[in-house]
Amino acid sequence: MAVTPIDHVAKATPPSVASKIRGLSDRTIAWLFVAPTIFLLLAVNIFPLIWTINLSFTNFRANRPNRDVDYIGLRNYERILTDGDIWLTMQATAHFLFWTIVLQVLIGFTLAWLINRKFKGNDLWTTLIVLPMMLSPAVVGNFWTFLYQPQIGLFNYGISFLTGVDPSSFQMIGDVALAPWSIVIVDTWMWTPFVMLICLAGLRSIPDYIYEAAEIDRASKWRQFWTITIPMVLPFLMLAVLFRGIENFKMFDLVVQLTGGGPGSVTELTSINLKREAFEKWRTGYASAYAIILFVTVFGLASIYVKALNKVKER
Amino acid sequence: MKTANLLAATALVAVGGLTASNAQAEDLTLCWAAWDPANALVELSKEFEAEYGHNMNFEFVPWPNFADRMLNELNSGGKLCDLLIGDSQWIGGGAENGHYVKLNEFFDKEGISMDDFAPATVYAYSTWPKGTPNYYALPAMGDANGWFYRKDWFEMPEIQAAFKEKHGRDLAPPKTQAELLEIAQFFQEREIDGQTRYGAAIFTERGSEGITMGATSSMYPFGFKYEMTPGKYDMEGAVNSPEAVAGLEFYKELYKTGTPPGYTDSYMEQSLDAFKSGQVAMAMNWFAFFPGLYADPDTGGDKIGFFVNPGQNVEASTLGGQGISVVAYSDKQDAALEYIKWFAQPSVQKKWWDLGGYSCHVSVLNDPSFPDSAPFASDFLLAMDNVKDFWQEPAYAELLLAMQKRLHDYVVADQGTAQEALDKLIEDWTETFEDEGKL
């Protein structure tokens, strides 16, 4: 029998990987594929978490390598939960979180609803609206400090133009009453487009035939909005709220650039306060307990929220 | 003769080459804050490079991030810096945590005497525990918080007349804190050359050390102290004394009635900007900036004047300035020590002052020509005679952040009273010192 070129090629080809590992079960092969990810997850997430929990029961300070480390039980947790200043930062965070989410959802949904209506220049407007979220938070924080400047700031002049008040008569980032709103405004300006995009995806996922059926049933536009649009966009809206909630709970860079936590401590959000404790005061044990409390809070709230989201999706 | 000269030159080159090959040329990195004196040091260090053959690199960090960046570097045992011109308050942590090399043996070996440096600067920049002959730095840059003003505005006849009419005395640089406030309020929202001007640019920054450095410039002259008995941490009655409360209330009044609008988070840069842009009649800032201010073509020269921080109950200025230390984690400590040996020479110190650095060497400061060598030189001497510094404890960062919060809450955010702010500050500091095992 003559040897063909194909036989030569077949002989030169090494045995396949599959044949080499023949004998391993599917389950073992699956574990082999998943193992690197699990290892990385353990090394990067789980181990630091366990280590942080361990540190939270000590008086360890990372800048004092020579000092003895003592286990002090729940003393750090007790200190944090009874510290009035920390509750004030929690209040500042809650104010920021609540108002940014409310405003971003309302404005974001409205914009998405408007953009979803076909009109000339639709794509251009979409591009213009999403521009702010493409900027770096540090840059946004910096240039808004100029916009808020009482003597030369465009924001103050805009308000002056609309209301007639003297532009230098109010200080957005220097006034205790206005500073919390100044960070809400900037975050809303920057991240409303994100909510808008998610809402837009939701609106575009609603099949036209549902509206057509409603039209045939003579449902008014208002009724279509409340019985078709809102229920079908709701899971998307809730997802946007979840994303923005988690992001804003750990808000740091934008606010640091804008107000530095001031005036006084009225815009000192928990993440800024935590950073000061951990990397400026170097109270590592205390800061670890603080981080664990925040982690449990976010994790608990997010879990409840995700369950609610799943229920809405199942409807 | 020509041949002899040639031979001599060849011999010199050969000897020079031998000398250079004896010591290994190193790449040294010196870390400091990014500001005017740092540029002067770059210029000065060229002589060191030529003389010792080492190559100098510089890592300059803007002031608001300087402490954060450098303390992280030290705490992590980083090798970025071979030499560090660290803030005076870091000396305790630098010594106790083993970040700085102790220099006593080196000083003895090289004949460097701390008696050759101004005592206040040795105490503040070099010693730990405070005042003991344990040296961790060589005084490198003397500094204190001082003031500068628009001399041309002060000299305007109409301004002079208006001031005299209002206050019954001539308008001149203030001698007391009370006069300072009067002048600031006098200039506040005053029209000069068709523009609205303001009284004074002061420090109100929240993030790093600004408001503490600014407010203590008023609180020290009123009588603020850290302890009743030095070294005992007995703060009750010192930190919250009636004088300290009066000093803090004074600073708030100065902020509320004598500064430009929106001046809620300002430190060195903002003070310089406010002055150079013609916004304010007076500004506080570190003496380190004064050579640059005097040289400014728009607001320097004849238009600017300087004065030492005015006293009230006592004469006092807030200390700035730094010592130069060898970082314990450096692999090039020998070359770094050579830099310090070179820097300690009186001739180098003289040139340091000429270039815009503030020497702490007595041969420079006690030179009869020194007070007239610059328009701010005599004020610098006055300031350095009465300087007071913040805690220099290893826990200084924690102590400082507590004071930043309490002062900013009261002065800028208008929360509570001065008495409450200082009482809370004692609580914060007590907790820190208890954690430290010092109380």
From TrEMBL, chain A:
Transmembrane helix as UniProt keyword: yes
Stated family: Belongs to the binding-protein-dependent transport system permease family.
Protein name as annotated: Sugar ABC transporter permease
Transmembrane segments: 29-51, 96-115, 127-147, 178-203, 224-246, 287-306
InterPro entries in UniProt: MalF_N (IPR035277), MetI-like (IPR000515), MetI-like_sf (IPR035906), Sugar_ABC_transporter (IPR052730)
Pfam families for this protein: BPD_transp_1
Keywords associated with the record: Membrane, Transmembrane, Transmembrane helix, Transport
Gene3D superfamilies: MalF N-terminal region-like, MetI-like
Lineage top rank: taxon: Bacteria
Subcellular location: Cell membrane
Membrane topology, as annotated: Multi-pass membrane protein
Location of the ABC transmembrane type-1 domain: 90-305
Organism in which the protein naturally occurs: Roseibium sediminicola
The UniProt record lists the keyword Transmembrane: yes
TrEMBL record, chain B:
Subcellular location field: Periplasm
Keywords: Periplasm, Signal, Transport
Family: Belongs to the bacterial solute-binding protein 1 family.
Secretion signal span: 1-25
Keyword Repeat: no
A matching Pfam family: SBP_bac_1
Protein name: Extracellular solute-binding protein
InterPro entries documented for this protein: Bact_solute-bd_prot1, SBP
The keyword Nucleotidyltransferase is annotated on this UniProt entry: no
Organism classification: Bacteria, Pseudomonadati, Pseudomonadota, Alphaproteobacteria, Hyphomicrobiales
Highest taxon above the source species: Bacteria
